[in-house]
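WARN no homologs supplied; continuing
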Amino acid sequence: MTPERVVGVFRVVPSFDRSVAEDAALAALYRRYSDWLRGRLRLRFGAENAEDLVQEAYLRIAPYQARGIKSPKSLLLRIASNLALDGIARDTVRQKHQHEAVAHADAFDSPHETLLLKEIVRSIPEKDREVFLLSRFGGLTHAQIAARLGVAVKTVEWRMARALKHCDDQLRR
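OK structure emitted
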């Protein structure tokens, strides 16, 4: 079995793709710039996103190590900024779909339509339905739902997206 070791906050499993020297270089890069990068990201994208962005940026910069990096701070900040902007774009699309689903729900006026909506909500898979109900009828944010359920915010977002897609599919039938 291949021995593991901890480098910075990363658990490193030696592989054929990276040498021990590359792992050490990545660890040195992390020690040198992680606090700086975390601080910059907190200012631009908020403290709740900074740590995840730092970790993901270091995972993404690892392949560049072999080629040599002339300006590691710039590359790290660019990678992390792109990751954050991609996340914002995904959230915007997700919110658009959520607003469309709510608009569909607002279109129901008669008791028959209300009954149909209840049946659609009941047909959502249980874990997705729980997130949907806490968000739509409980008024909780994704972070609050994640804390209540003991899951990651990304899990809540994923479940909500599936619940909304399920509702949309049912309404289009």
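The chain is about 75% helix and 5% strand.
OK
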